[in-house]
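Subject — a protein and its fold
Fields — amino acid sequence, structure tokens
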Amino acid sequence: MTVYAAAAGGYEAQEAALSRELLARFVAGTADPRSPAAWGREHASEGTPEPAVREALLKAWARERT
């Protein structure tokens, strides 16, 4: 599987760590990628959210259980 990552320096360390943790949980089967995918479909026209919003979303998705 090809995984694309943001350019270095584009994200704060905490956000990048949350992203990697969530991706690892997707791979392990302990998190479900349907929530972020659904959010992306619903909010695609709004563009990329601000950093604080992205971090809050990552934290919420990481708390979800499969």
Remarks:
- Helices lie at 13-28, 34-43, 51-63.
- The chain has a mean pLDDT of 86.
